[in-house]
Amino acid sequence: MTTLKEKALSDGRRAALVNDAVEVLNAEVRAKTGLTGMAVGAAFKVLEGIKPGFVRQAVDDLLDSFLDALDPLYQESVTQGVKPGAHLLANQDRAAEALLAVTDARAERASSQTLKKTYERLRPSAKKHVLTAVPRLAELLDRYAA
């Protein structure tokens, strides 16, 4: 059976998927309001201040791991005959945990103390943010894997 990574990255679509994933991430950051929005926006500015293009590079670097992490949900959607995005929406908690396991492992290995501290500060509320992003992620998944 074709994996999510094979399906999503077929026909040289990696650059387009990275661009769309960065746009999803930026849309989520822009949608944050109040103190949370200020904190998340400031954290992204810190990350971009470390290295311009950091967010895009991080998405590209993590893309394979994210796709692998979501593959079990994708395989279930194929087996059940439902759209991948709909299955992702129906399993938001599992999707969030799978994605956060990837970022947790990456943050643990980071050499930049600034990056580690920024991640540690945001991590307690990260699941809530990922859950909020699932509808946009579901649309992205359907665009590249349906």
Summarize the helices and strands and which ones pair or pack:
Blueprint: H1 4-8, H2 14-31, H3 34-50, H4 54-80, H5 84-90, H6 92-109, H7 113-122, H8 126-145
Helix pairs in contact: 2-4, 2-8, 3-7, 4-5, 4-6, 5-8, 6-8
Rg calc: 15 Å
Largest sheet composition: none
Overall strand count: 0
What is the assembly state of the chains in this entry? single chain
List keywords for this structure.
single chain; 146 residues; mainly alpha; globular
Task: Provide a descriptive summary of the structure in words.
The structure is a single chain. Helix content is 84%, strand content 0%. The chain has 146 residues and is mostly helical. The protein has one domain (4-145). The longest helix has 27 residues, at 54-80. It is globular and about 45 Å long.
Short description:
The chain is mainly alpha-helical and 146 residues long. It has helices at 4-8, 14-31, 34-50, 54-80, 84-90, 92-109, 113-122, 126-145.
